Amino acid sequence: MKRLAFVVGFFVLGFGLIAIARTQTGSVEQELIKLEIDWGQAFYKRDIAFADRFLADDYIGTEEKGIVMTKAQEIEDLKSGVHLSTSGVDDDMKVRVYGDAAVVTGRTTVKGQYQGKEFTSRYRWTHTFIRHDRRWQCVASHISRISQK
Asked: Is the pTM of this model over 0.85?
C-alpha cells in the first residue's frame, strides 16, 4: 500500500511540476509580448528611459539595410528623431523561451511621415532576450523590410 501511495504521489508531483512549468512559460511569453508592445509604443514616443531599460548594455541591432547599431547608437537615433515612424501595429508574434534566454519574432506595420508625405512600411523582426536580475533585456535584434508586391 505504501508503495502504491508513493507511486501515485510521485506522478501527482510530476504532473504538478509540469503544470507549473507550463504556467510559468505562458506567463513569460505574455510578459515578453507585453514588453514588445511597450517597446513599440516607446519607440514611437521616443521614450529614451524605456529604451535604456529595454536594450542591454551590450545590445547589437542589425537594421534593414545591414547597418549594425549599438545601444548608444540606437538611443542617439531615437533622440535625434531620425526615425519618422509615428505608429505601428504588431502581429504574428511568436515567443520561444530557453530558460533565461528567449527569442521573439513578429511582423510590424509602421506608419509615419517623411518630407510631408505619409508612408506605410511592413517589417519582419527577431529580438533575442536575456533575463538578467529578474528583468528581460533585448541583446540583439534584426529587422527586414517586407517588399511590396
From this structure: no
